[in-house]
Amino acid sequence: MPVVKISDSVDTEDALVVCCFPSVSMVSSIVAHYLIERLDLTFCGGVRHPRLPAVCLVQDGAPMPPIRFYAGQPVCTLDSCDKLIVIVSEVQIHGMLALPLTEALLEWSKESNTGAGILVDSFSHGVENMHELVDDDDSDETILGIGSTEENREQLNEMGIPLLKHGVIGGMTGVLLGEGRRRGLNMLAIMAEAAAEYPDARAAARVIHHLDMLLPAIKLDTEPLIEEARRIEEQIKSMMMHKLQTSEEDLDPSMTEGASSMLYG
């Protein structure tokens, strides 16, 4: 079983937990790093397990675990929530580890008396029959939601996020949602449609726009992300020009890493 280690100094009572595991176009990672920096969250722990990739993230010269916890105390609109914990990872979680990791996280959540959970995820552009699968959406930049309880689904509606009507959700988001429903936990997923070819800061900005509704005490300004999106787009244009002169085998494989965690049915 994975071991969750959090600093004893962190007050987890009724904290809102935002989970950001790897997704299409690094949307969840962008959202997590934005929240950590914008809300001045502090590193407070991580997860250990022999099946996790043998890597560490280095930040400012310090080694960090591949699955990390950050905590702080912004004010949110959920019941009794004046604390925030962000769980973030840039490494893909192997399928066989998804359920044990989910159980470890939910057991930690129970023992720590945390509050509601929000899962940030994304899916690729170009999903066939996309708009037949949502209740009401005529936008080319889609946000979809899933709630583990009826209360969560009503909350998504109040936030203006259409519910996914039919589909299959993979990865940690899918396992966490399934276990959340089984255990009757307050857990919702916010998923942004993203361009799979490159890090999509615009998709991340749409997620943050909706998260801003839950954190009224602090304005989550998405303009820096939009500026980042413009910079990335210019880089992509240059790369596409270069692509005309090189074979696909010569391209940087990191630009296409990460499959969608979403398979529509």
Structure report:
The chain has six helices and twelve strands. The protein has 265 residues and is of the alpha/beta class. It has a single domain, classed as Rossmann fold. A hairpin with a 2-residue loop joins strand 4 and strand 5.
What would a concise description of this structure say?
The protein has 265 residues and is of the alpha/beta class.
CATH architecture: 3-Layer(aba) Sandwich
CATH topology: Rossmann fold
Count of separate structural domains = 1
Strand content: 15-25%
Span of the ends, CA to CA: 32 Å
Helix content percent band: 25-40%
SSE pattern: EEHEEEEEHEEHEHEHHE
**How would you characterize the largest beta sheet?**
8 strands, mixed
CATH class, named Alpha Beta
The CATH superfamily is known as PAC-like subunit
The class by helix and strand makeup works out as: alpha/beta
Search tags:
265 residues, alpha/beta, Rossmann fold, two-stranded antiparallel ribbon, disordered C terminus
Detail the topology: elements first, then pairings.
Blueprint: E1 3-6, E2 16-20, H1 27-38, E3 42-48, E4 57-59, E5 62-64, E6 67-72, E7 84-89, H2 95-112, E8 117-124, E9 143-147, H3 150-158, E10 168-169, H4 171-183, E11 187-194, H5 201-211, H6 223-243, E12 262-263
Parallel strand pairs: 2-7, 2-8, 8-11
Antiparallel strand pairs: 1-3, 3-6, 4-5, 6-7, 9-11, 10-12
